[in-house]
Specification:
By secondary structure, the chain is of the alpha/beta class. The protein is built from 17 helices and 19 strands. Helix 3 packs across helix 4, helix 15 packs parallel to helix 17 and helix 16 packs across helix 17.
Length: about 425
């Protein structure tokens, strides 16, 4: 992300790089085991290389190396300037093999649970969102001023949001762009230590790393844009809890923990593998108290912050999905309704321009009236969907695409369901 260094200088939580093992705030024995396992896999390494891989400062790793060398766990094979090149001794290999029985994790050193909790609470500040930022984030969509007036304050409040309304009017398009609204950065640890167990948190698939982090930042933390995680029909109960990997003896953080200090979008809510009732019961306390309760596989329970703005996007009525007690905890309920003529025409014009199409002047009005007659109401998706069919039909015929009333009529025959045995015409199939 351009400008990451400048934004990182304004971090609300800034952990300095520990220079001694006791400053890590996690068991030193855990770090020693991590070093042994990493070296066991690599065979030979330097302190500088291990410092970069384990995200530990060179002075700290040097102190740890000297301590473990005195225990005859290492054999020095050479020098590279002021750095050591070394391998495990026979005793070191024995201890590394024993450590592999309890964990196979060889990634960056974790931070303590207390440090993680403090970071999330410290970074739970009002996001830098205003009308200009929201409008810019949704610049490639056609949205009304009323929608901006409702969505903007909801995002600033950091309280949960229901986006509801008939299908095809842009809910998914909006929520998939919400990550653009954030202009500040937060720090996210690679992993968190709880009761000697490691929970992997940083996910490069959803956490966008900033460039040029401050040199004195604890390297166990990653400077990132505020997360925005979108899940749809694939959401299932296990994704809401710690997931233990038997082969590595490591836990993966649940989706809401990975979304802390950002947004978690539940798209097409009500149609997931997990039932709405289960999800709502699971989160009714976290939404109210901003605290989540997680369990290790052997029953140890612990608390983590639940500082995430949850956005539920659904085609169903909120009252059909949740009871009054839960809906009270989602104060922002925003209707994304069918579009009017003016918005429909703006969407059509934008889609024509985006595709660089030529067409009859009357084609837009014809499309609008056809959609109203065949579909019952105007939907934001209809111009793009039907123009896609027009372009595809032109390509199939070997002709340059041209938007005419005739071409739109043929595309509509494909797009809308047709009556059968005297039945009424219906919605898109």
């Amino acid at each position: 992300m351009p400008g990451g260094g400048a934004e990182a200088s304004r971090l609300s939580f800034f952990p300095k790089a520990p220079l001694r093992p006791e400053e890590l705030r996690i068991p030193v024995a855990m770090v020693e085991g991590l070093l042994l396992r990493r070296l066991y896999v690599k065979g030979e390494a330097t302190l500088k290389g291990l410092s970069q891989e384990l995200k530990l400062s060179f002075p700290l790793l040097h102190a740890l190396f000297q301590k473990m060398r005195q225990k005859q766990l290492f054999e020095v094979s050479g020098m590279e300037g002021n750095d050591y090149r070394f391998t495990l001794s026979g005793l070191g290999r024995e201890q590394a093999a024993q450590r592999f029985l309890t964990s196979r994790y060889i990634g960056p050193a974790p931070v303590s649970l207390s440090s993680y909790n403090a970071a999330v609470r410290s970074q739970n500040i009002r996001p830098l969102i205003d009308r200009a930022a929201l409008k810019a984030a949704l610049a490639d969509l056609v949205v009304t001023e009323r929608f901006l007036e409702e969505l903007g304050p909801a995002l600033v409040s950091q309280k949960s949001i229901f986006l509801y309304g008939p299908t095809g009017n842009g809910k998914t398009s909006v929520v998939s762009r919400l990550s653009r609204i954030y202009r500040d950065t937060v720090v996210i640890p690679y992993a968190v230590e709880v009761d000697g167990q490691i929970i992997v948190l940083f996910d490069p698939g959803v956490h966008e790393q900033a460039e040029n982090p401050p040199p004195d930042l604890d390297p166990r933390w990653v400077v990132c844009r505020r997360p925005c995680i979108l899940v749809g029909g694939e959401l299932e109960p296990r994704m809401l809890e710690l997931q233990h990997e038997e082969s590595t003896q490591v836990y993966a953080a649940p989706v809401q923990m990975r979304a802390n200090n950002g947004l978690l979008v539940i798209d097409d809510f009500g149609r997931q593998i997990v039932s709405p009732v289960f999800l709502l019961n699971r989160w009714i306390v976290p939404l109210d108290r901003h605290t989540d309760y997680l369990s290790l596989r052997y029953g140890l329970k612990f608390q983590v912050p639940f500082e995430v703005t949850v956005v539920f996007a659904t085609n169903l009525e909120p009252a059909d999905l949740a009871d009054e007690a839960f809906l009270r905890r989602i104060p922002n309920k925003i209707l994304v309704d069918a579009v009017d003529d003016e918005v429909f025409e703006r969407i059509y014009a934008r889609e024509i321009e985006r595709r660089r199409l030529e067409g009859e002047g009357a084609a837009g009005a014809y499309l609008r009236e056809l959609c109203r007659r065949r579909g019952g109401e105007l939907r934001a998706c209809q111009p793009a969907d039907i123009l896609d069919i027009v372009v595809a039909a032109s390509e199939f015929a070997g002709l340059p695409p041209r938007v005419t009333c005739e071409a739109i009529g043929r595309a509509a025959e494909i797009y809308f369901t047709r009556p059968r045995l005297g039945g009424a015409e219906g919605k898109p199939g």
